Structure formats: C-alpha cells, structure tokens
Amino acid sequence: MIPDGDEKARARVGASAGLGLKFNINTKWTIDVEARGAIAPSIFGNISSHRKAEGTGMLTAGVSYIFGGKKFIPVSKIDEDAVNAEINRYRSELAQAQADLANCKNALANAKPEVKEVTKEVEVAGPRAIFFKIGSARLDDYGKVNIELAAKILKANPDKKYKVAGYADKATGSASWNQKLSEKRAQVVYDALIAQG
Questions:
Q1: Among 37, 93, 98, 197, fewest CB within 10 Å belongs to which?
Q2: Each residue's pLDDT tens digit, 83-140
Q3: Do 12 and 28 meet the contact criterion of CB atoms below 8 Å apart?
Q4: Which residue spans adopt a coiled-coil conformation according to this UniProt entry (predicted)?
Q5: Domain ranges of the chain
C-alpha cells in the first residue's frame, strides 16, 4: 500500500516458521497438523504510534484421502542374530591377532641375540700411519722409526704393492692448503722409504 503522493515503492520483509506433521492412519487416510508463526513490519509504518511490527500465528488440521492408496515398500528384514554373530567373529579374530602381535613383541623383547664368534687371521703389514705435527710435513723421530719398520716389511715382501697417501686435518686449514700439505707429506714418506733402500 503506497500513500498518495509517495512515488517510492516500499517492500516489507518478514519471517515465518512452522512445523508440520503427517500421520499415516492406513494406506488411504492421513491426518495433517501444522503450526506456523510469522512476524513482519506493520503496514502502517511510522504513521502509527503503536507497534512497528505485526505477528501472526496459525494452527491448521486436516485429513487427506489418497485414491488407490499408498504403495508402501516394506524394508527388508535383517537377521540380527547373523549380523551380530559375524561382528562377534570379527571381534574375536581381531582380539586373536592383537594377542599374537603382543606375543611376538614379547618374544622379540625377551630373545637373546645369538652371538657367533669368528676368528680370522689377518696379515699385518706393520705400521701404516706416519703422523706429522699440525701444518708440518717434517718427519719427527717417531715417524722415522715407523719408516724404518715399514721399509723392513717392504723388503721382506717384494711381491706386494703398497700405496702411499697423504692426509691433512680439514679443521686446521683451507682446502687448497690441505691439498698441498697432503701431497707434500706423501712425498716425504715416499722419499724416506726410497732412502731406506
């Protein structure tokens, strides 16, 4: 409803909520019951000095007749005993599997490892390491003794091949410095072995 002289149209927005129930008496007859409430702004708007909103409520009841009746499809019956028996069987199998697992864990925890003692003779080629002071490629007296022992072993086994390799501690120098130092140490050991004959 638009008052005279008011060219703007207005819309009223309200809310409605309800609850409906249907009771099947048999395949042809049903009873219907519905309760509903609504609230909306007053049609009088600001003209009225009273309430600015209107509320309505309604309750309806009725009966319905379905010609030919409803064709109900009954739910298939379930053999509850068979279902429960199957569930119990699965529970039993699960309990048995858990018991087997626990037994295996206990057996592993309590098992004593089998220790086999193996004795093997290894031919020792004598002192293999010549040690140097940090940052040095000079042989000390201890290193010279090891060179003499290694030279005796080399002379006693002329058919064997030996490798001379130099190393340096990577924590005490740069990579390039350590590479040069390693090569110099290997050369010092090689020269000392050659000098021993």
A1: 197
A2: 999 999 999 999 999 999 999 999 988 888 888 888 776 565 555 688 888 888 898 8
A3: no
A4: 80-107
A5: 15-65, 141-195
